[in-house]
Amino acid sequence: MVNKDWESRVAYLGPEASFTHLAAGTVFAGEWLMPYATIPECIEAVANGEVEFAVVPLENALEGSVPLTIDYLFHDVELHVSAEILSPIEQHFMVHPQQVENWQDIEMVYSHPHALAQCHKYLYYRFRGVPLEQTTSTAAAAKYVAENPSRTIAAIGNEFAAKKYGLTIVEPNIHDFHFNHTRFFVLQKKNIKLDKKGHDNSPKTTLMIKLPVDDRSGALHQVLSVFSWRQLNLSKIESRPLKTGLGNYFFIMDVLDDEQSVMMQGAKEELRALGCEVKSLGTYFTYKKE
Amino acid sequence: MVNKDWESRVAYLGPEASFTHLAAGTVFAGEWLMPYATIPECIEAVANGEVEFAVVPLENALEGSVPLTIDYLFHDVELHVSAEILSPIEQHFMVHPQQVENWQDIEMVYSHPHALAQCHKYLYYRFRGVPLEQTTSTAAAAKYVAENPSRTIAAIGNEFAAKKYGLTIVEPNIHDFHFNHTRFFVLQKKNIKLDKKGHDNSPKTTLMIKLPVDDRSGALHQVLSVFSWRQLNLSKIESRPLKTGLGNYFFIMDVLDDEQSVMMQGAKEELRALGCEVKSLGTYFTYKKE
């Protein structure tokens, strides 16, 4: 996967073997990936030039407070999205190789609270009454199980963690919802699309839009008209409170077009004419982890 | 705060002294509050009648994967929102009373990853280079510091955790963003507003809306027209992927009106006539933690 052009340091939300690590491996060679403990640390690392890229969870994530990513990008830094990565959420039930024969009689299950929550139904129907023990990450759970080979315990986590800590997956895909993805942003200072092999070819643009100060009923409707009559499709819209007090909002919109297109240029101009503040995070492609 | 009518068991997202616990105490007497380990466990507890109410984080939360709450309410259960609770996010720097004089020379800081992230700037400028140690909750961090009085270490968490574990807050309000709130839902099987002292008097209704199957550019715009011409204000809109494959969405909208109003009845009828599926979580009041 290494390509001269991409030999750049990449921060990701750790620890090693986290879901963000797994996603980052879809786009970047493993040797360039460096774990950081929190989302702001990842974002600051790229903003201050320590690394060229940062990979952080954006939506429906396992490890991070995701509004944090959106808010940090809106309020604190001027960065661009170089790519998004969609990664299926796949949780597996894993034990130490010495315990493979006993796995149905497991006495305790270790994982991150979000992973335990995502496997709620499986655990409820298959291991009702078995105590669940929370860890700070799914990787930490796998590590703990690996270090206690004589105990009849299991971890829930991804296949990366199983491999890293030498555990055996005895039941794969125990998550309650299938077709559920986590979405990650690859961030960079420059406004350049990653254009490596493996992306799908529809460009997407993320805009952050603050409505005019005299916010009123219908302002959002008016903003959407700007996209609607141009048949610009939105794949995502979300309001986020501004941190200047209650009741003030900005919007994140994902538009399925390139921001350099005639229609998008026109839309941005009209939005500004309506009194909106428009911050573009740039245009990017989507990479999917298989 | 106890009132005969409210002597009902209440599930909350634990552990004890969590931010959800703190928020739940705004509305319910402490003796009725019972911690559950995950959001689905809280929701199932109210759905299966184990408890009368559940308090779970919805937005911008510290302890939970919040899309989980929205998705669980949309896909898995028929519950209603009895109230929402807004709680300011206030993180404090706390040490063991024996270490109060040494707090500026702290050697390690313990907290939940989200709390560490929310205090990123404070930690960066005030304690750069001091190792940060992740815990499964802010309460667990406070407990650890309480159990190690001879070590020069600190925890970050809320005032409830400081009180519970006998720690001294040496620097209050170290979170980076002020005016930042976490929003919690109080859930119940019945469609009844909580109407205790202390709420603000504007009713709010949460609708979950699935667009017609032949989703097309402008469908969301059409949906918003239904609210816009009636001057029904939306305080929140968010799209969430349906879990039936990529590209299908439902919307969560908070409307600042009572669902029994003439305008709201008309809006819901029109939405259904447009081919939308509309699921109402009911009308409720807002309680604010001071």
From TrEMBL, chains A, B:
GO terms for biological process: L-phenylalanine biosynthetic process. Residues 9-189 form the Prephenate dehydratase domain. InterPro entries: ACT-like_dom_sf (IPR045865), ACT_dom (IPR002912), Chor_mutase/pphenate_deHydtase (IPR008242), Preph_deHydtase (IPR001086), Preph_deHydtase_CS (IPR018528). It is an enzyme of class 4 (lyase). Signal peptide: none annotated. Its EC number is 4.2.1.51. This is Prephenate dehydratase. The record marks T182 as: Essential for prephenate dehydratase activity. Residues 208-285 form the ACT domain. GO terms for molecular function: prephenate dehydratase activity. One of its GO terms (cellular component) is cytoplasm. Pathway: Amino-acid biosynthesis; L-phenylalanine biosynthesis; phenylpyruvate from prephenate: step 1/1. It holds the Pfam family ACT.
